[in-house]
Each structure stands twice: as C-alpha cells, then as structure tokens.
Design a protein that fits this description.
Glyas_Bleomycin-R_OHBP_Dase, Glyoxalase, 119 residues, 2,3-Dihydroxybiphenyl 1,2-Dioxygenase, domain 1, 8 strands
Length: 119
C-alpha cells in the first residue's frame, strides 16, 4: 500500500439539492455545463470540461437545499483516514454504483468521500 492509497485525490463532484431540478439544471447549462444524464426522479449530472461533475437532486420544499463537496478516493479498502478525521459513516455501497464515506471537519461540515464500487 502506498501513501497515495491512503489519501484523497481532489474534488470528484459537487452534490446539490434543490427545490426545482429543471431550473437548477438550466442555471448550470447557462454557465456552460452539459447534461450528462438525468433520472426519472428529478435529478441528474452535469459536467463542464474535465473538472468535477455537478450532481443535482430535487428535494421537497420542507427540506433546505444543501451543498456537499465530494472528494475522490481511489480505493475504499486501502483508505485510512488520519486521527484528526471524524468518520460519521464508513464506506458503504450506494445505489448508483460507488462507495461513499461521510466525514466531519473541525467546524462541523460534512464531506463525502467517494470511491469506485468493489470489483
């Protein structure tokens, strides 16, 4: 295992929730993002060049829209967070084919770490 296996590899994505998927998607398309795919449950993924993708999901009006930055991890099994990282949820399989971990920073913000699904 190398040190690279134990660290993040930069920003993978930005996850956003919104009250209006269509308006949010049009906003990002007006900024030069292209729609990569949309789902049948008011969500989708957009990308601008080779940078991180933006995934937007619609939530009910009683939920406040949120933003979460997702950091990339090459291998969930090899990843070892340092002693200053509070793990909120360990790596778990997602319904969209990745593995995700949630950590909390010293100021209380939640961060997602995303790795490829197990092979």
């Amino acid at each position: 295992m190398t040190t690279a296996d134990m660290t993040t590899e930069g920003i993978e994505a930005v996850f956003l929730t919104t009250h209006n998927w269509g308006r949010a998607a049009k906003f990002f398309q007006s900024l030069g993002y292209e729609l990569e795919f949309s789902t049948d449950h008011d969500s989708g993924q957009l990308r601008n060049g080779d940078g991180p993708y933006v995934f937007i999901a619609e939530v009910p009006e009683d939920q406040e829209p949120q933003t979460r930055i997702v950091l990339k991890v090459a291998d969930a099994d090899a990843f070892r967070p340092g002693p200053d990282v509070e793990v909120v949820t360990p790596f778990e399989d997602t319904h969209y084919g990745t593995r995700e971990m949630t950590v909390r920073d010293p100021d209380g913000r939640l961060w997602s770490l995303q790795a490829p699904a197990e092979k």
